[in-house]
Design goal:
Strand content: 35-45%
Number of helices: 3
Radius of gyration: 14 Å
Structural class: alpha+beta
Number of strands: 6
Largest sheet: 6 strands, mixed
Helix content: 25-40%
Distance between the termini: 28 Å
Shape: globular
């Protein structure tokens, strides 16, 4: 685990699921990512400010993640802290990127996950800056 403590079996399963999601996301493995998402999942992106875009349903979320992977091939998320309780998990992260011109940067943010029946039903993303 990445600094998270599991209090119950349910919480331990949520932590393991979110960690598997984050690892697959960093590999940009769309099949592995979407295997962890429920059919009725929701993803709220950080862009455009102030509210981001809401994607509802497995296909819409897949298209959003696939577009992100295409536009950000060198991107990575580093977990700074994970806190979970019951069916919820919060992940504080640092997102790093680089582009073809050699420019690099990062932002920090948080994802709020909800899990049901062993699948992610919500991933709500927020960013600083």
């Amino acid at each position: 685990m990445t600094g998270a403590r599991a209090c119950t079996e349910e919480t331990a399963q949520v932590v393991a699921l979110v960690e598997a999601f984050n690892q697959a996301f960093n590999r940009q493995d769309i099949e592995a990512v979407m295997a962890l998402m429920a059919d009725d999942c929701v993803f709220e992106n950080t862009y455009p400010p102030p509210d981001g875009t809401r994607h509802v349903g497995w296909q819409a979320v897949r298209e959003s993640f696939a577009g992100f992977f295409r536009s950000s091939p060198g991107a990575s998320f580093e977990t700074e802290e994970m806190v979970a309780l019951g069916d919820r998990c919060a992940v504080r992260w640092r997102y790093r990127w680089g582009n073809h011109g050699g420019e690099t940067g990062h932002v920090r943010g948080i994802d709020l996950f909800r899990v049901r029946d062993g699948k992610i039903t919500e991933k709500l993303s927020y960013v600083k800056g």
